[in-house]
Design brief:
2 copies of one chain form a homodimer. Chain A has 188 residues and is mainly alpha-helical. Chain A is built from 9 helices and no strands. Chains A and B meet through helix 6, helix 8 and helix 9 of A and helix 6, helix 8 and helix 9 of B.
Chain lengths: 188, 188
């Protein structure tokens, strides 16, 4: 019974995170939490039991985003893809996630910088996975040595921020990231 | 007499803009306007005569920034520098200016996108100068064709934004921009 209740709670938590992600993407981080609970199919009380404040919800969302990126990097490391392609695919996922809602690029950069942040552990794990992807491509001789994981992350998040600004054409993220990937490549 | 008064007013305006730029760089755009007037050596009344609101002052600052960038591009176009180097120098100036204070990268991107902005004319002139620098480097065969002026500007401003985030190492702007320049280069 306790286990079933726990599984239920875990399921609700995931439904809430999914609904929050969609709502923040569509309406910004001021989106109605009542609507989030409604979309998740739970009551507002359940939402507040999991996430006492809007900040707690945003933080949990970011934490799960970092965890997904870490898992995605591990998957790419195990795949037969070219190391440089794998890095490009991962940075595309990072940038795509980072532009989900206004303010997210700032939050990611802050979490990376602040060692006292609750998110620092998941953030550092994400960066470590990126470092492994980068290192592999550098060892394969296709990506410039001397570039750090923090730099390629800053590059991708900076471009995600630029592509998120009003007036940016819909394909600008892919085009900017492609230029950045050319910049990371060893020429020839 | 009228001319002397006009020259005086023009001089005060420039002193105020210089003082505001320094104050916003040091203390953010909430910096005290009384301190700005004091640094410029004028009374607060003179400041408000030139700039009725803080927004008007920020707008004038941005306008003069765009004009300087346009003039800088023209100067580079007339210099004997390599076209690719000239573009790199100009993007460095753009990015350095863009990170002067928090919120400036956003304002620049907004001015570029909004055709109804008061800043649109100076912004478009700045972009046109960038296009001439870019075109020259593309014709020289050292910078990739198919990249637009809007894209290289978005690239530089995105990296300026990233380099402005807390925790970014002091040399990150130069390093990120160097990667971007490698990305713009025709390989080989």
């Amino acid at each position: 019974m306790v286990q079933a209740a726990r599984a239920d709670a875990q399921r609700n938590r995931e439904l809430l995170l999914g609904a929050a992600r969609d709502a923040f993407a569509a309406h910004g981080t001021d989106a109605s939490l009542r609507d989030v609970a409604r979309s998740a199919g739970v009551g507002i009380g359940t939402l507040y039991r999991h996430f006492p404040t809007r900040e707690a919800l945003l933080e949990a969302l970011l934490d799960s985003n970092f965890e997904e990126l870490r898992a995605g990097a591990e998957e790419l490391l195990g795949s037969p893809r070219e190391p440089q392609d794998a890095l490009h695919a991962w940075l595309t996922a990072l940038a795509a996630g980072a532009r989900t809602y206004v303010g997210l690029p700032e939050s990611i950069m802050a979490a990376l910088a602040d060692e006292n942040s609750k998110l620092h552990a998941s953030c550092a794990a994400m960066r470590a996975s990126c470092a492994r992807l980068l290192d592999r491509a550098q060892k394969a001789g296709t990506v410039r040595s001397g570039v750090t994981a923090s730099e390629v992350i800053a590059l991708a998040i900076g471009l995600a921020w630029a592509a998120q600004q009003p007036g940016a054409p819909p394909d600008s993220m892919a085009r900017l990231l492609s230029t950045a990937m050319h910049g990371l490549a060893v020429p020839g």
